[in-house]
Amino acid sequence: MNDAATTQLDRTAPARPGPRAGYGRWRERARRNRAADLCWRAGVGIVGTVVLVAGIIMIPYPGPGWVVAFAGLAVLSTEFERAHRLLGALRRRYDRWNAWQRRQHGAVRLLLLAATGAVVLGTLWLLGALALGAGWLGLDLPWLASPIEPFA
Question: CA nearest 97: which of 107, 112, 75, 83?
């Protein structure tokens, strides 16, 4: 290398730690304070559980159900070792399921799609969404009414 390039390398500033380093230091200080640690873990547990449950509810519907469920587990895994292990195991199982689906004949894949559609329609019927949609269209179809009392 020439002298100009060497001089340029010598002048480069040391790399600044990223935002995660600051978080790590803050989290270590919070762990030393029992009350702060308990509050933080409770907050992470509540937020992670809410996101996880929302994701599980969204799984049969078109959209980001699996992503949201895994995000909830990822939030929980930041503080809870059991959630961390479960997240790893579920990722591996999810990857195996997707690989299995890709290897199947088109008829099997269509059957899986139909089963998912049946779950979605069944849920919409139970929650009264089908009757609500029919009402918006001015249709009187009593068989679309939910059998569950609060949604009927």
Answer: 112
Cα torsion 83, 88, 89, 94: sign: positive
Residues 6+ apart with CB under 8 A from 138: none
Both 55 and 122 in one domain: the answer is no
8 A C-beta contact, residue 54 and residue 72 = yes
Looking at the fold, whether 96 and 120 belong to one and the same domain comes out as no
Same domain for 112 and 74: no
CA distance 51 to 76: 10
**Model confidence, pTM:** 0.59
With vertex at residue 66, the alpha carbon angle to CA 60 and CA 68, rounded to the nearest 5 degrees, is 115
| pLDDT tens digits, 23-51 | 778 778 878 888 888 888 999 999 999 99
Residue 88 shares a structural domain with residue 57: yes
Q: What is the pLDDT of residue 152?
A: 67
3-state DSSP assignment of residue 103: helix
